[in-house]
Amino acid sequence: MITALDTAGCHHEVNPALTFGEQSSILTQPAEVCAVFSLPGRDHHVPHRNRHYRDVMHKHTA
Fold this sequence. Notes:
By secondary structure, this protein is mostly beta strands. The chain has one helix spanning 2-8, and strands at 11-14, 23-29, 33-38, 53-59.
């Protein structure tokens, strides 16, 4: 996702409010779209257990 944002010229920053432990988050500017990523849970069947997967994506609104 970071590569796609960079390629598109979309500015993004780490979202410190939602980055902790095994979870990370980015916030795009100026659109203020937030994406949260984490390692898969025990019950999630994914091909790469050591990779972060997107959990949620939402747009901040006033």
